[in-house]
Amino acid sequence: MYKLDEIFTLYSDDEDQAIIKVNANSPLMVARYPFVSGEYEYITVTKSDTHILTIVKKDGSKTSFHWGAGGCTCISESLRELKTQVQKFLTDSRVDMGSPYYFNK
Hints:
Elements: H1 4-7, E1 8-13, E2 17-22, H2 27-32, E3 40-46, E4 50-57, E5 62-68, H3 77-92
Antiparallel strand pairs: 1-2, 2-3, 3-4, 4-5
């Protein structure tokens, strides 16, 4: 079982999105949490019927995928696990994502 508050910190929670700071600053943290990369700086998740999860890397580049009312993006197993753990972290942090589609796979 992962200790998500060790790897994620809730940076911001407003009406449009939640922003998570990723604390994968060592090879050990990446080994303990294989769904993150040492290159990740922030993760954002939008609050709407279609959620967009965006990974912001330390070099400023981004990658994103979506799920919800508008369908979903096909993603790798590691990104699926990242999505699951981000959802769990936000739920544990009592962030209201405001959509019945939030937990759709």
